[in-house]
Every structure is written in structure tokens, then in C-alpha cells.
Design goal:
6-stranded parallel β-barrel; about 450 residues; elongated; alpha/beta; 4-stranded antiparallel beta sheet
Amino acid sequence: MSRMLRTASSLAALTRRIAADRRGVSAVVTAIALTTLAGFCGLAVDVVMWEVNQRTMQGVADQAAIAAATAYRNAGETAALGDSTTAQNAAYATAIRNGFAASSVTVAAFNNGSSCTNDGCIQVTLTQPQSQFFTAVFFTGGFTAGASAVGTCNGCGNGSFTTGSNGGDPCVMALDTSGKGVITDTGGGILSLTACNLYNNSPQTDATVVNNNAVIEGCTLTNACGSAAFLAQPNNPGGIDIPVVTSASPAPDPYASVTPPTVAATCQNLPNPPTNIPSGTYCGGNQFQNKTITFADSAVIVITQGLDLHSGSTSMTGTGVTLYVTSDGTQSQKSQINATTQLNITGPTTGAYQGIALWFEGGSPVNYAGSNGAGFKGAIYAPTTDMSFSGNSGSTSTCTRLIAASINLTGGTTANFDNSGCPATAGPVLTASGVTGSTTYTGSPMLVQ
């Protein structure tokens, strides 16, 4: 009996020792916790992957919406942007190039009752099933991500509309009626118009060329400031952010009836010092270069053999002055005006040469790389000449016009022409051009949302 009691006592003691032993418990708890932690880590990996994919999808949707608006603008279409097959195809093509199947892309007109009405905007929606590397253990239904973007162009959001006019008040005119690229704006050039119009008289397709981030605009990309473009050509080249009229009849040269100044048989040199210079015929070339020159009021200055101001700092000042520059049509007598030239010249407001400040005749090219200076007012008239703007050319002054056979802007130049409130100074107002066509105003592409 006593042995049985001792045995029972030993078993009880052993049971208590086993119950009190905690060795190995942490391993069991850790094993259970690792399973849970691994699940959370897997969920985090999948969620981060989904977020990255979402950002990528949104970027592609944005690109597709911008591409749609750009294709619409460049095509010069008159239907509402959201209904345009050209715009829709461009959206699909952009999404497909970025790896999305056509079945995952939806393109449709978009209206929100405010910034987008009358199918004036286009919406691109992308959908894509998301991969599940860890979450499939917990969720078997799968996940699909989506992204959308709405595109339009300045002036398109309220649907298509047209502009028509008989012209009037030109500040930039290309008179050549036969060539292509008569107005060429490339390399980021900006041609800015305020309260006046652009005309290109060539009926050839692509007579106007605007590319490589160049733009023809009003006061800004979003404000036409009362300006329009009248193109004799049948197509809208794009890149013009003012209302465009195509198939316009050629506009008349407002200075065609002006008789050129008389050129003396022999030219004279500039006086020394070159101040208060009267009317007369002066030898050109580089004689005017790197000088400070003043002209007598209302002087008509004839300069022969071109005007070479390609180096140094030249300043010319005069009120009511017309500079008439002749050439023989060759490169050797081309006129060059560099970036440091200051032309503080105001053309005459009355008389035979009203409004004409610079007149280039003879056909030799003219390269304008100057800044005009704040005092320049009047027309640059080159009816038989190719006029090139490069470098930092342009003008911050008002009452400026450019009328040339052809016009070329390159190298990031900014050429400003402002006719606000000063038709008398700038020259005759063109009251009618015989315009017959009209097209949609399609400004720069933009995202609405």
C-alpha cells in the first residue's frame, strides 16, 4: 500500500514538473505568427504592385487623351472632338502601343455640363486584371484596375464652332501666291498676334508649316485677343492657336499702290557724326553698323546694296521716318539685323509712306535677329523678299506689321505684332479680303481631368 502511495506521489510530481516546463513554447508561437506575418507581407507586395500598375495606367490614359486632342487639332476637323474618328483612332493607337489590348480600351465623347458640352471632350478609359502572387490564397475572385482621362483643346470643350470673317486689319501677311512653306514656323518659334490677323495668300496645301513645338498664337495660347488666321490653302496645318479660316481668297497688298522713293544715281556716305541725317540716298552694306544714328524727323532714307548690321551694337532713332533698303536679289546684298540692334523708329502717320518704317526691295533675303526695341512702330514691308526671324527677334512695342513675300521663324524666336488701338500708325486697314471659307478654332491640347 505504501509503495502504491509513493508511486502515485511520484507521478503527480512528474506531472507538475511537465506542466511547469515552458521550454520550446516560443518556437511554437513563432511558427504560428510567421504564417500570419507572411500573409501580411504578401498582401503588401501585391498592393504595392497594384499601385505601380495604376500609376502606369493613368499615365497611358493621359497620353491617349492628349494624343486624341492633338490628332483632332492637326486634322483641322469641324465635327465635335468627342465624335471624331480621327481622335478616337489616335487614342486607341496610343494605348495599344503602350501594351494595352484594344478590348481593354474604351473611348467615348464626354460631357459634364460645364467645361465639356456638345461632345466637345473625349474620355479614354483603360481596364486591366491585376496579378495576384500572394493574395490569391485569401481572395479568389481576382481584381481589375481602371484609369480614365478626359482630353480636349482650348476652344473645343463646348463642341465645335466656326469662325468666319471678311478679314480686315492685317499685321502679318505672306504675299507669295504659288509656293509651299510660305509661312514656316519651326524649332519652337512663337509668332504672337494681338488685335490683328495673319494672312497667307498661297493656295497650296501646306503653304503654312508649324511644327517642332512652334506656335502661332494670340496674346496667349488660351486668348486669341481678337486675332484670326486667313489661309488661302485648303488645310489647317495645326499649331495655330487662334481661329483659322481656310480656303480664303488672297488678300490684297495694302501698300501695293505706294510709289517707292526715288533712288539717286550715286549714294553718299553717312556724315560724321551720324546725327540728324536728312532725306537722301546713302551707301549701304556695313556702313551703318556699330553706330549710334539719328534721323531728321519725317526723313525718307534710301539705303542701297542692303543693310548689314550683323555685328556690334547699332542704334537707329527717328520719328516719322521710312528706311527704304534696296538690293540686287543676291546673297551678297542680303540685309542682316542682329540681336543687339535697337530700332527706335516710328513710321510716318501721314503722307505717301504712312505706316511704313522699314521697306526692303529688290529680293535679297532679310534676316532679322534683333529685338526691335520698345520704340519701333510701323510696318516692315518686304513684298518681294523672304523675311527670316531668328534668335531673340521680336518686339514689345505696338503698331507693328510684317508684310513680306514669305516669312520664316526659327531657333526659338518670338516675334510679336500688336495692332491694338493704332491702325493709323500701322498703315491702312484692310477692310475686305474676299474670304470664303471657315473652320473650327482648335487650340492647344489639354487634359480636363
